[in-house]
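job 3f2a | input accepted
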Amino acid sequence: MKLSRKEEFGPRELTAMPQPTDTADHLEPVDTGFVAFCYAERTETHLNLLGQAVIDLIMSGVDRSNIQKPFRTREMAGVSLLPIAVCAPPLLPAGMVASMAPLPLTVMAGWLLSPFVNSVWTRYQTRGEAKYSELASCASDAGQRRYVRALEEYRDWLSQTPDQLFIRLSNGDLRPITKEEHRAIQADHGRQLLLSSDRSGWPKVRGRPLPGGKLMVCLHGRRAKSLLTSMRLMLEPDDAIFNARVDWLRQQALGLSKGRLALTNGLEHLPKLRAARLEGLSLTAVLNDAAKLGIGATEGMIQKLWSGNYVEFEEALERLPLETMP
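job 3f2a | predicted structure (326 res):
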């Protein structure tokens, strides 16, 4: 007997690629990558950033059975049983016929009961992932809400850049994520992939196939725009990117009705403060030589911009579509 191809050659496996030296040096587990994406130390945990309530909602999901199923479909679960109740007495004499023809009656009973079974299954099994608004409302403070927004930004970025994701196999080799595995990130409960790098943290992800190993990401210095502050804006090392972002923010500030003054005033002084920071000057030196450096801001504003603790400036940033910022 001739063996099948599967029996002869064994199950088909994805070929591991050689570990790329220019990428592997920057690879990290996808959950650790999220922490770094949020400007936090890699020793921090996403639990501290998002909070227990948000994590629980991400891992469990939201019961949407009553929303997903139309009213008439749910009600048909009860209506479908009416023919059995109405027709039962007349069908009693047909018991002998039923014993001779069980298959047609079984098919008919299955057809009559299918809406009821479907409704019960949907009622107790359907739990969809929470929307962003539901996660944000579950956060305990404004800081956690900003990290929830950063998680959405992280997910959107990884959904658009599959070349930044790799699979670490059990033997230590790396391979790029496949197109089919990559779809799981946007699948229902796909956020669970971002909070755990291995399968034990993906209990409800409905995308198939799931990544076949430990999920790794290469950030290349990428950080959440939604967590931008004046200090983080100044710390941008690339002059072209910094100037492009300042110009973009100035244009966007024109459309603000609230916070426009704080944003425009802060942006006016940021370039000179950034130049002083890049020169290695301390905050004390900047405060003492502000006039000489050409910085016309007050001492209080300089301190708030330097430390990234300018509340009005950050609130104005939150009102902007930062996902489109250069």
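job 3f2a | The chain has three domains: 18-55+142-218, 65-125, 228-324.
job 3f2a | closed
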